[in-house]
Design goal:
Elements lengths: L7 E2 L2 E4 L3 H12 L4 E5 L6 H5 L5 E2 L8 E2 H13 L4 E4 L3 E6 L5 E5 L4 E4 L1 E4 L5 E4 L8 H4 L4 E2 L12 E5 L3 H10 L5 E6 L8 H12 L4 E4 L1 E6 L7 E6 L2 E6 L2 E4 L3 E4 L15 E2 L12 E3 L4 E2 L7 H19 L14 H10 L6
Parallel strand pairs: 1-9, 2-3, 2-10, 3-6, 10-22, 12-19, 13-14, 13-19, 14-15, 21-23
Antiparallel strand pairs: 4-5, 7-8, 8-9, 11-20, 16-17, 17-18
The structure holds flavin-adenine dinucleotide.
Length: about 350
Amino acid sequence: MSDRHSARHSDAIIIGAGPCGLFAAFQLGVHGLRSQTVDALDRVGGQCIELYPDKPIYDIPACPAIGAAELVEKLTIQAACFSPVYHMGQQATSLERTSDGEWVVTTDRGLVLQAPVVVVAAGGGSFTPKTPPNLGRLAEFEGGAVRYAVPNLSAHAGERIVIAGGGDSAVDWAIALSPVATEVVLVHQREELRAQRHSASRLQELVEEGRVRRLTGRVVDLHGAAPSLEAVTVHGKDGRTVVPADRLLVFFGFIMREGPLASFGFELSEGLIPVDTERFETSLPGVFAIGDIATYPGKLKLILSGFHEAALMAAAAARRCRPGESPSTEYSTSSPLFRERTQSELGGRSP
Ligand code: FAD
């Protein structure tokens, strides 16, 4: 049971510290609202940090190319102007309404937060990688020699790497790891890849240059004394091949789990939260949803969309927190608030 007397109070609680949650903290600050953010992961950045930190993103306005980790760092610095509070490594497990119309969010570590506004920026909810089916001894190597993400490219220097999968992530990582690893072998069930055409073409070039090897088949066995992997067996149409390997990277996509959000009481549609496009409010008053978790006609699951949603959500949140006062649209270029806040933060500070 929540202990509301010990609840930490703020103007807004943000669930999720992905790129959209981070920008929400900034936008709420612009309207003078203090926020607290809770995230199940132990570091900010959501998908950008967990799934593709070293990849360049090409569709952030005014950034012809920016690394995903760099984007997260910049969003964090930008939000730091307004001193948001982060509670990391805590999953929001319940949402309850108080008698005076505020909201209480409780986490799996017993933290209790209270605010008039809640912003759900939970992305795909809890994203869990799909595991390879019927792969012997998987549990012995998972989290060590067998991984589902590449948090740090340089950690794979000199390794013999087998990559399982044929989609964008598998192909992009095969390309990115080829100059770093000693050997990269891409194993996919079919000859055709499911990756974007330019990535598939680049991979083909690397195969022709002998910098990436391709095998058609399925990884069916792991060899070595765990935690050290020595080889994997690939079963293809020509039988079984044993491939020496220090690392198996599996990119079979993710299962998006609603997790605790399903019991929060707002309407859900196929695991996503329907919102209006004026305020980005859910079916619960004062509870907003932005980023990948929010859905409406024409929604594009892009960081850019989440930024726009955060701006309109914050204006609506300000109207809710200060009824009767209409939030002004002030240019940051002429605002003393921005000048004052950003001067002290431009050096950068991470949570
Ligand atoms: P997320 O980044 O998913 O973050 C959600 C956060 O919420 C997570 O940290 C999660 O731990 C947390 N969370 C969830 N449930 C809870 C809970 N109950 N309690 C606490 N915390 C919770 N987009 C682009 O615009 N351009 C690109 O080039 C691009 N490239 C991509 C490449 C790849 C390989 C992938 C996978 C995605 C790409 N995207 C790209 C999509 C982009 O990453 C997402 O649109 C973006 O991350 C969504 O941000 P978000 O903040 O809504 O959610």
